[in-house]
Records
---
Amino acid sequence: MAVETPNLFPPLDFEKEMKRWKHVFQVLNEPEPKIGHTPRNEVWKKNKSVLWHYPAKQKKYAIPLFFVYSLFNKPYILDIAPKASVIEGLTNRGYEVYLLDWGEPGFEDKNIGLDTYIQKYLRTAVKRALRHSGAEEITLVGYCLGGTIASIYASIAEEPIKNLIVATVPIDFSTIVGPDKWAEGLKDGTINVDRFIDVFGVVPPAYVEGMFRAVSAPIYFSNYTMLLNRAHDSRYVDKWRRMNKWTTDQVPFAGEAFRQLSNDLFKENKLVKGELMIGDKNANLKNIKANMLVVSSSNDNLVLEPQSLPIMDLISSEDKTYKLVEAGHVSLALTGLFAVVVDEWAASRSNPL
Amino acid sequence: MTTNRPYDPYDSFKKYSELWEKQINDFIYLWTNNSEFVKMSKAGAETQSRYLEAFRKNQEALAGVLNIPTKNDLANVATLTIQTEEKIESLEEQIWDLQDSMKTQSKEIETVVEVSKEIIKLTKQLKTELVKTKKELADSKNIQSELQEMKLELSKLNTFKDEFEILKNLIEKDKREEPILAGAGSAK
């Protein structure tokens, strides 16, 4: 009668469970992790926007990098954690890095449109960075919507832009992620943001987050179960906390800019057609002659590859490269992989000292 | 059925949660991805906008009566500050331009100063050389005058020589005439 007794209660790793719950309570109770560790100094400030300068550890390249981040979310994703930070990676590799932080628009900034952002903020910031660094040329690096803004700016810029790097950039809005009927509604004018913006002035952060949620996953809780599942690993918990802080830390969106984004880009796709007007200038991508690197990430579920790819045929640069990287929309910056990609391409084009 | 792996209740929980999440989202996607939903959301957004608009208008009116500022008033004040900031910025840029032009000018001036310094050096050299030549000229003049004197003296000497010659001739004449005179005397 030697029947093996089934082990109804498999052994429980007590220590692991203790660690798990300790970390979970930490996440719940402790203050949010400190972010932005790379030494930097303020070069210029205007309204809510700040131009930061991250000095190179040992300067190896004459041409500095100028980061233009998206108007959605905050740019500290580029400097999220020690050793995984894109900016830290680049300063360690010998680049002078400038970052334009758009800041959080308030109700008084409801009239700031894309043209104001480009002409009065980005252009001035580039000028300041050029003057501050004493360099004769500059490399623009645009991430996500920042890439779209950088490309628009580069097409009307008078400043000496030698290289233009855009990553996970939406250029062609004929394909949009999210339910196709919504896209259809947006194109035929059923969904119109004009009235909404007239009332709200600036788009509140909750709405911005809601919009992203709606197109990707309206109900989203697997990140919490994922945390619970791996909470015994303190490194994972640290990474999770930083990522969670960033994703929930949304910024309001200036109304006029949102209107232009929605009407001129999403609805009428003017950038690809070459009809976009910035102030009195026609922002035609054909005018871009700078050396160009376009980076797309293969697992991107927010900006699809067909949205970035058309820029390659629209620009008139002679030196242009397209690179598909194995990463997601955010993980490209989150893991610091972007620094490697930028360095590989920019090293030979940044006038090594 | 026995496993040596420690019991991890969260693993299956995670798997189920992911499944639920995906199913719910797929359901929502199916439920919302139609033109009826889009139209409905449009109607909803319009109603909300209208309602909010009316509410804001009333607020403004009420705030006007109560004499208190609203968000709009504050925004207007903030815009003024931003405008001032922009003006200061443009001033700063103009100062930069001025600085730049000053720098280039001062550089130009420096080069001019250097050139003029060299010119001064050259003129000084020329001056000393001029003094030298003047001195030499004076010397040569002196020599000339001395030469002239010498010439004069020489010419004087020449006349003296002539006179001497005449005298010599005379003496010789005298000498020749004397014996005749002696001869004549003896003959007497």
---
Amino acid sequence: MIVPARERIFAYAILIAMAVLVLIPVVAGSLTAFKPQIIWISSPPVWFFEPTLENFEFVLITRQNWLHLRNSLIISIGSVLIALVLGVPAAYGFARFRFRGSKGLMQWLISLRMIPPIVVGLPFYAMFLFLERATGLGLRDTHLGLILTYQTFLLPLVIWMMRGYFVELPAAMEESAMVEGYTRIGALWRVVLPVVWPGIVATALLNFIFAWNEFFLALILAGNNTSTLPMAAGTYIVRARVEWGNLFAVNLIIMMPVIVLTIILRRQLVKGLTFGILE
Amino acid sequence: MVKPDASAQPGGQRLSTRVYRLTQRHRHWFFIGPALVILLAVVIYPIVFSTGVSLFRVTFASTSRPFVGLQNFQRMLGNDDFLQSTYNTLFYVVFSVSGSFMLGFGAALLIRRISRGRDILRLVLIIPITMAPIVVGLMWNWMLDPLFGLINWFLGLLGIPGQTLLAQASTARLMVVLVDIWQWYPLVFLIIEAGMATLPRAPYESARLEGVSSWMIFRRITLPMLRPVILVALLLRTVDAFRTFDIVRVMTDGGPALTTETLSLYLYRTAFTFNKLSRAAAGSILMLLVIGLISAMMFRFLYKDIEVG
């Protein structure tokens, strides 16, 4: 498309302004994480200073946020793995078999994206509590409990994203493998999965971001043993005094993996964020 | 998996053949079944459970649970705080969705007019979507801090005295909406831009040859062809704005004087601060009905345009 110079300059001006508005709070905030305590709250802000890692040391070790980091990792990785184990075969089933109600089921899966977390979070809390009182069986404040709960938003997303990757593959691939004597499972395992592998990785990483950033269900369901990093971030903001340097150290620990993954995933991002509705 | 009842089958074919046929006809359940069972357990069962709880008077403290019928729903609908938080939520939805839509759409139109630096600009613009909403909220708390926030420092340079933007009812509501827009207009941008990239070129070329103005090209070609993409963007933004919790929770926690209390926040408080589990359950079912209605209407429009499933 040939664009007149005037229009192009206008486009650059607006877009750069938008990018600056994104970057200012992110960069300025992140800088605070490297500031020594005396200049956390200096106004006007100090832009040049000797960076220090003492805030990270303080939050991870003194405040023991490494435990939250560990919980976040266990819960995010665990819930993504379970969502993949259940979701990848289901996606394959939806992609390859037409059966009565298959279309309706897929639509139902999209509709799960619309459910507000409070609608499932509330009964989960009560269910875990009543279960524990009745049987002594505890899912409350366990990693497994949260991993199960996270399937409410991860599993439908995995199925939708992976279905998109399976549909793109010709069915002839497995069929010829099955002619050569593979069972369908064998063909899926040996022939199809190696080809959709990049799609599985992208799906896993994107779902990891969602589980990693999750706050609401963790707030309701996590306790001392399972509290995650986003919950730890909230503890640095108490009405009387906010420990900005420490807060931004935790914020940065939450953001780092996500930013790296975003750079890797930028092409698949739309698919995941729109739930594959646009295909 | 389906287990055929062998004894009920009339003779004729060998049993193993019949079993084989049955498993062949239902083999999709082998793949889909496990995921479906888990989804029923983690989504449908909780909603059924919640509906059940809403018909009784259940608290975390007491073990007696008398049946009260629809009383909890009545109480909820007659509760001023519930109505106030519903109003706040609708305010939030209307302004956050329209704001993020206009900015995102504008950015998508603009980025198609440039070539150099497009990838890096796009990457910067999508940073907010990938941040945890709670991190975004905490970050803007710092930006808006009345004593040493960047916003007030900047206002000070312009000669405007320090403002407690999050503590005043008139501005707090606007601030949380602006922060929500800041985080989510890139989502609209990303979706619309992806949609534009798939549009065919031919209609544009012939329109240009015939000297049609850019505005008419936009109205008559771009907008109609983008309809499904626009609907998806609006649908996702609407349901996300409707259930907002994280950003508001850390920025204002519903205050001042409930002016920023969203439905999610109010129901959370009803259950966990005021220990009224049943009433919160009734409220959450009402919320589910409303969001179901809104998304069903948008879906109807959407299905006219694209094939899903």
---
Amino acid sequence: MMNEGKSHRESGSFRDRNNQVYAVDGRIIRGISSAARVHWEALEKSKFYKNYASRGQVIPTQVLAKEELPASFSDEEKHWDSFLEHERIPFVSYAYEWCFGMLKDAALLHLDLMESALREKIILKDATVFNMQFQGHKSVFIDLPSFEVYEPGMPWVGFRQFCQHFLYPLMLQSYKDISFKNWFKGNIEGITPQECNQMLSFRDKFRKGVFSLVYLQSKLVASLGDSKRSIVSEAADSDFGLEIILSNVRKLKKVVRQLEWAPARSEWSDYTKTHSYNDDCFEQKCSFVTEVVNERQRGLAWDIGCNTGHFSRILAKKSDYVVALDIDELSIQRLYDSLKKDGPDHILPLVFDLTNPSPPIGWRCKERHALEDRGKPELILCLALVHHLVITGNVPLAEVMDWLASFGSEIIIEMLTKDDDMVQKLLLNRVDQYPEFTIEGFESIADAHFTVKKKEEIMPGKRFLYHLQPRG
Amino acid sequence: MKRYAFVSVALFLLALSFQPAAQAYLDPSSGSVLIQIILGGVAGFLVLLKIYWRRIRRALGLYKEPAEENTESATAEENNDE
């Protein structure tokens, strides 16, 4: 978050009253109650926690003495029994920005953690997808107070939440090829059993796990919803135990593992060469970007319209962290797969549509943040993007430049003219209502916010690259 | 026999009575707990047997409720869903 220089309560951290996250001068500090401390101490001693933390799959954390708290911590904020400091996630992202493979990996990590924890009589008390983050291409579990010592007789309280936040969204995309992302943007609690059941067809009910986990669960949740007798206490009185939860976790693992998103299985054919211009031009583009990138080491960089991430990889060579955004989920899935295979570890691939961005959602629209509020980039790369925003998205060019200028960052931007094949294709069935979409128009609009540090014509009369420096 | 028949009908109604769920954040939800039991292998089957055996005994007046529990008959409660 952008929170430098002050301490504040993280607005998305309030549901569990036993802890509170504060972001202070870029540090992530969590106050925990005495009840939560008991669970933390058990977790800290456990073997599985050490293993997962050493692999970075659980957020690295240390205990912080009250004397070590930053000076900006108020007395009121110091009332917690104990404090933990978590390693900072370089850039926060949400499930509605993840490709299918990312949600699937996050789901499997959650189940692995459940299984390993249960073997040491610890359980995850909830299963919200927002407890998962990505550090580059690696999923990380961040909400340590979710681990609690297992109380014999208790069912897996987070079971239905796991279904709503992980299983059903994955099933929807796998079986129906409907993206789970828009659903999460509209409902922070994911897909209910009833909704999932309504969406899956009769044929789908015969797929692995659907009959019991979707159909039967939706019917039972509906029929027992108002039951006065708690089956939870009845189960506790009837020797409900760890083995049942373990058996459910293993079953869910099997179901999740076999879920695939069909387009992701297809060949790379369309993606190996995605640009509509010749190789010389592409080379020139690469050397322009490389030259700017090599000027100095930068912190956070964004690659907007990253495609399968060729330029994100160039950015990554001299950036601490790269956020690679593209509207096309398949491109992001390809990038995610290739990052998992070959690295590097500091590129975060996200599915993102600038004309339909992630809204701030949740309680008072403050629980989950807009992209702009999650960290300021030092360099923004916008290649083959502006014409899509202006012509396809009908966003005025002045608006696009105003938005880019709002970050106060350096920009590398590609501008096409109306003579370019791609632009002509976009204009084919449209009224040309874009008189400002010319090189002169672009330069005059950009001039209000930026100085041109470097300009290069990479395709005569058609494509231009700019390295822009913010004014002031 | 009449009572057995009533219990059977009650259980049948329970299985068929679909109602809007009243769920709070992280209420484990009875339906989801029952699914966990159903999918819980042998251990789950044993728990299910114990739960339903107790319900049957309670319906027949053969089960003594622990002091703090509500003493209404199970079938009356479960069937109270109209």
---
Amino acid sequence: MHELKIAESIVDSVSKEMERRGLKSLRAVGLRIGELTDIVPESLEFGFNAIVAATPMEGVRLEIERVPITGRCRDCGAEFAVRDFQFLCPTCEGRGVTTVGGNELEICYLEVDDPHSDKRISATA
Amino acid sequence: MTILKYEKKVLSENDRLAAEVRREMTDRGILCLNLVSSPGSGKTSLLERTLGALGKELRMGLIAGDVQTENDADRLRAAGGTMVRPIVTGGACHLDARMIIEALKKLSLDGLDLLFIENVGNLVCPSSYDLGEEMKVVLISTTEGDDKPLKYPGMFRRSSLMVVNKIDLLGHSEFQLARVKENARAINGDLETIELSCRTGEGARRWYDWLRQRVSHKRA
């Protein structure tokens, strides 16, 4: 159940960032989680909800994008989707495969109600 | 509703501390290995045997992580380990880089060739946490399922060496050496394999040679 610790790290980072930008009304946190990370999204949400209960962040949603595993063959350079964790190049059957996608464990955006106190808005929904 | 871009690795603080550990190990020429496995695969036994065989040749520091008790650290001291630090996580299912930094404050690194970090027995949670090691060594024993690499692909993918322990018990279970290697190879074509028995010592020489080679490479 290391998802609880991961959730703690998310709450810490997001709280600091909210304070830094002078934001108050957080609705959701966008995350990218690779399929090679051993993170179970449901457990992460469970841990997150437990930590933020009875705090100003209660009710904040986690919007999780799962990133599929992508490999790059070191022999022929082909990039391919890794299915069923079989790291085998479909082009040349090489076994020397570098993981180029699937290890992500990143926060990518914050969804807020009140943007007026912030000047670094990159997109408006 | 407004979407604000905020890009940050969730474990960036852990990664920063791990990078500190890695820098220190590199500066001092110490080979740092992170030992991971299920509970009972033989991490402590492997270290006991290694201390017995190489204790006079290589100076080894050991960090022994457990959820509770310092039993493993006690075993390592009894096996001749002089530089041993226990980490009792008190429930946490993995070690993180901050725990390593704290443990290193109480462990003299002067003259060390090797630093072993014995992680908490768990093939899932420790895989997310970089400890600043040079590489992960994953143990599996013949009393487990030979499909473990397929069940825990994250850990086997992130490891550089697989040690198959308890080969003295081969034939007493359904475990097949060829199958575990094939399963591991599907997950990680770069994974080296060493088979041994910590109980009888069979095959251990290859492990010692592997360590010697890595240590001298690190010193160079």
